[in-house]
């Protein structure tokens, strides 16, 4: 295919436009037309300039791509207080009640201990204005009852001691009687045996005398009668000693029964008295428990009466009243107002992605941009940024938040420009944690591929002055174990 933009083709087109054929045009005219067409086909000066500018811009971009660029980790968050005690808090009433009077207004500064709100009682058990007097009377009565019970316990203890001593004396007495009866039985038994021997001898003598009298008549009847009388006397003595022995044995049995009876009698009295003492001790324990309840009740009523005035927990400003009006009921533990502490060490709470968390170290430099504050931020050239403020990484959470991001706290860098006083808690903020320097072309290549920033360790210039970082534990505030 022939090129349609040759000089001859251009000349032919021009001649066709003016309505002439090539053979009808003189030679000098054809030469003039040819030169004019060539001039029209030349590159315009503006195009050359644009080309030169583009080439210069290309070489400039190549040069710029080798300029150092400081990598950073970006996060968004809000301004907060570093100390949790200095963050905005809600004031809650401890007891439920009815609002009687507001002593402050929204936006009013208060000092610790100032009365914010006065409430009245809504529970009928606390309506009595002399409730403390009534409880104190119950306390005194219960105390007197306890003292009386203690006296009864002491009396029972003394009675137990007396009964135990009486038991010992009675047992000794009864044992002595038992011993005497036992000795008497021994004596009477020996006497009985002697009488039996005497009777046996008398019986033998009588038998011999009777035999002599009946056979030979060697003895007289008078002698025989005397022997019979002596035999009867011996028999009487023997029967008497036997009866005496039986009586003595009965006395021994009675002494034994009396010993057991004394032991059983005193044991019953001791058990009864001990049971009464145990019962009194149980009553005393119950009374002590009731007394403790009364003490607790009295203390609770006193504390409750002190809670009718809701006080400011610390110096600050009343931001908002969450309960309005007079006569409105509030529950116990219900928020009634929000207070902003007057003295708060400001910090920035940022949320970063989990993939950026390993790049953050305690003491790392951070540049902060506050919402509503004029700023021009170049994350790679922090020295060229305008309207940003310096900070240091102070806290890194170990657990992700509910949004899946990790929270970090940034404190002001005391060596750099101070943060504006006009910035209030809750304002939005953006932060860039400064990392290593890399060429711009490397940063562009990393961003296009979605790679994380350089994982190299950072120099000592990013650390808080005076701080030492000796490992991952030290970076996150965990003290390292000393080598043994």
Write up what this structure looks like.
The protein is α+β, with helices and mostly antiparallel strands and 484 residues long. It has seven helices and 14 strands. The strands form three sheets. The protein has a six-stranded antiparallel beta barrel with strand order 1-10-13-12-11-14. It has a four-stranded antiparallel β-sheet with strand order 2-9-7-4, with no helix packed on it. The longest helix is centred in the middle third of the chain and has 86 residues, at 221-306.
Q: What brief labels describe this structure?
A:
single chain, 484 residues, Elongation Factor Tu (Ef-tu), domain 3, OB fold (Dihydrolipoamide Acetyltransferase, E2P), four-stranded antiparallel β-sheet, 48% helix, disordered C terminus
